[in-house]
């Protein structure tokens, strides 16, 4: 396992990057799917070894322990720091009174937002998040809803949350 930066080079211990696996235990590709194989399995430049680019992000500590940070789809940069919607959602759900949480990363004119289902005022949620997260990871805004919209697979329906913002239906 290695943690690689955007340039494909290993990052120092403690720095977040993509989790990449190599070795004889790694499969050679996806059955009958050459496009996905080409995107996911790449040859290392110096040795030509096949490496699996997992799409997961994490970091290794000084002792070699791996810490998962999120999936490529869940990662974004804000104020120069790479972060994950999953990390912020987990911190929100750690707050007593929050049943569930969903995060919308910054997009255009919209800053980082958190939606929660719970009984707390938005400012209390943001204050509690400030105790749990680095300053750059604290959302600019919190909206409290009775329940969060879900997809048919039970995941947060982020498109529905964006529609709520656009229609200003969440307060």
TrEMBL record:
One of its GO terms (molecular function) is ligase activity, forming carbon-sulfur bonds. It comes from the Bacteria. InterPro entries: AMP-bd_C, AMP-bd_C_sf, ANL_N_sf, ATP-dep_AMP-bd_enzyme. Residues 87-155 form the AMP-binding enzyme C-terminal domain. Transmembrane segments: none annotated. This is AMP-binding enzyme C-terminal domain-containing protein. It comes from Streptomyces violaceusniger.
């Amino acid at each position: 396992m290695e943690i690689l930066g955007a340039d494909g080079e290993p990052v120092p211990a403690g720095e977040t990057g993509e989790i990449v696996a190599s070795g004889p235990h790694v499969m050679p590709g996806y059955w009958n799917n050459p496009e996905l194989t080409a995107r996911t399995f790449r040859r290392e430049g110096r040795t030509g070894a096949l490496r699996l680019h997992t799409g997961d992000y994490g970091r290794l500590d000084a002792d070699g322990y791996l810490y998962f940070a999120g999936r490529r789809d869940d990662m974004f940069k804000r104020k120069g720091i790479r972060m994950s919607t999953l990390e912020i959602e987990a911190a929100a759900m750690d707050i007593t009174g929050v049943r569930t949480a969903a995060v919308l990363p910054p997009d255009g004119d919209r800053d980082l937002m958190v939606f929660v289902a719970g009984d707390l005022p938005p400012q209390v949620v943001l204050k509690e998040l400030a105790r749990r997260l680095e300053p750059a990871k604290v959302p600019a805004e919190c909206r409290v809803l009775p329940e969060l919209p879900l997809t048919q697979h039970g995941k947060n329906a982020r498109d529905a949350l964006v529609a709520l913002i656009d229609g200003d239906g969440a307060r």
